[in-house]
From TrEMBL:
Binds 1 zinc ion per subunit. Its cofactor is Zn(2+); Mn(2+); Fe(2+). It comes from Vibrio sinensis. The keyword Glycoprotein does not apply. This is Ferric uptake regulation protein. The lineage of its organism: Bacteria, Pseudomonadati, Pseudomonadota, Gammaproteobacteria, Vibrionales.
């Protein structure tokens, strides 16, 4: 079951403005893939997105979705959930560069994005002690969310 949330049109307007300011094109397909990602609390795979996209664009093919995902990742509008090869909306839509910590529910697949500067600082400090320069963080924690935990205890 896919949990659908109301799409914030202000968010779509924000990424349209960011794209215009950067001089990059937010094509209708890119915009639609972003909207599909935002419409779900769970992370979406490329093929799930393709199936949803085909509802409005029957001719859509995998490269259409992959190109849109590449663009959205490059612009910082979405995050890749590495462990499940899926995608979620960035909670700040690249308002500022940040590293995220993703909490992934193994029961319902919902994903919560956290931004914890103290965690990132601790990781950077530990890396520095070993003479290591971090270029990317992938911090994902799997478990059971509060909703699923309360369902188990009922």
């Amino acid at each position: 079951m896919v949990m659908v949330i109301n799409l914030d049109q202000q968010l779509v307007k924000q990424i349209e403005e960011i794209c215009a300011a950067r001089g990059v094109r937010l094509t209708p397909q890119r915009k639609r893939v972003f909207e599909l990602i935002c419409a779900s609390l769970k992370a979406s795979s490329a093929y799930e997105l393709l199936e949803q996209l085909k509802a409005t664009e029957p001719q859509a093919k995998p490269p259409t979705v992959y190109r849109a995902l590449d663009f959205l990742l490059e612009q910082g509008f979405i995050h890749r959930v590495e462990s499940t090869n899926s995608f979620i909306q960035c909670c700040s839509c690249n308002a500022h560069k940040h590293y995220s910590h993703l909490l992934i529910c193994d029961k319902c697949s919902n994903v919560i994005e956290l931004q914890d500067d103290s965690l990132v600082a601790l990781l950077a400090d530990n890396a520095e002690k070993h003479g290591f320069n971090i270029t990317n963080h992938v911090i994902e924690s799997h478990g059971v969310c509060q909703s699923c935990t309360s369902e188990i205890t009922k």
